[in-house]
Amino acid sequence: MKLIPFQGLFPKTDLIADSDSFFGNAKYKYPKFHANGFFEKEPSEALYLYQVENPYGKHIGIVATLDIMDLLDERVLEHEKTLGAKEQEQLQLTLERRAFIKPVLLGFHSFDEYQKFIRSKTKPDADVTIKLKKKKETHRFWKITQGSEVEELIKMFAQHVPKAYIADGHHRCSIARILWYQSYKEMISLKMDSLLTVLMPFSELKIHDYNRVVQLNEDLSYIDFLVRLSKYMNVKPIKKLSKPAKKHEMIMSIDQSWFKCTWKKSILKKHKKEKYILDYALLNQYVMAKILNIVDIRDFPGITYVPGVDSFKGIENAISKVEKGVGFMMYPLTSKEMCYYADNKKILPPKSSYFLPRIVNGMIVQELR
């Protein structure tokens, strides 16, 4: 991977009265914030050591722009399809901003030299510290500007990181490809030669479950759904709530009751030739398609995705907003499964993974020239 130092823009924290509100609105209000002087450009190019501290721990990595050819030549690997409507919205927003305001989160396989470098550069006092009280998060940046250190880091990634995996930011990568093409064909005045990223080893990333609440058809009762579900899964009521303990186990909420569901052996046997049998894929194939007759889950409006960090309350809240909702709590995907799909150009079911840390709009910005 080819890291490229850049002149980042940081928010002027002394002008921000409410950090949660400011960064929560940055997605749509960045042009206004920038015009009103809320952002300041760094005087020189740099790479940045970046740490996110949240209730789940600390996550540390490197913020850099990547040579766009790493993306175009498929050294940045994807595992999801993008949604056309969302892609169009993000393209329009990026053109209005003339900037990327949120780095793509990339995972990579760590190595000793990198770990030693990180330990030597992490100091008690960061160059930039931003706190989000409601999220209970602290974001810290250390600037790497010394020429020898920048070159060391660039050389390190060029030698030891042949590829990286998109943890969050498939739409931003798709936008970058479109902008590169439009720039190459001189359809736009912007120069698109690099991509804003934060690179973290998989050891620094936490994959949570990504749960779903689906609305039943009007003519399908709760009882009928349970009867049909029992064809594919073993369904047992539970009194004490706990997350799924292993693969092929789900926790289901239906009609104010909770159940533990496990796939029948006959179902798993049909997929024994697959290297990884994914619960997310089985749920789409047997429940969403065969029971609920959902043709394309990506375009189905009657499904809500609930991050695993929101736990049981998140599912209950999503169910309360629809009529006849059924919730499924999943067992998390592993990084090995995600990498296998990406390496083999396979596509995972939509919303199969929820990565921490979550990257926030407006923390660091790459201007497009």
Draw up the topology in text.
Elements: E1 3-4, E2 9-11, H1 19-35, E3 39-41, E4 47-54, E5 57-67, H2 68-72, E6 76-77, H3 84-97, E7 99-100, E8 104-108, H4 112-121, E9 128-132, E10 137-144, H5 147-160, E11 164-168, H6 170-184, E12 194-201, E13 206-208, E14 210-215, H7 222-229, E15 233-237, E16 249-254, E17 257-263, H8 265-270, H9 279-291, E18 303-307, H10 311-320, E19 325-329, H11 335-343, E20 354-356, E21 366-367
Parallel strand pairs: 6-11, 8-12
Antiparallel strand pairs: 1-5, 2-3, 4-5, 4-10, 5-12, 7-21, 8-11, 9-10, 13-20, 14-18, 14-19, 15-17, 16-17, 16-19
Helix pairs in contact: 3-6
Please explain how this structure is put together.
It is globular, with a radius of gyration of 22 Å. It folds into two domains: 3-207 and 356-367, no CATH class; 210-331, no CATH class. Strand 9 and strand 10 (137-144) form a beta hairpin. Helix 3 (84-97) packs across helix 6. The strands form five sheets. Strands 1, 4, 5, 6, 8, 9, 10, 11 and 12 form a nine-stranded mixed beta sheet that branches. A six-stranded antiparallel beta sheet has the order 15-17-16-19-14-18, sandwiched between helices. Strands 2-3 form a two-stranded antiparallel sheet. The model has no long low-confidence stretch (mean pLDDT 96). It is an alpha+beta fold and 369 residues long. It has eleven helices and 21 strands.
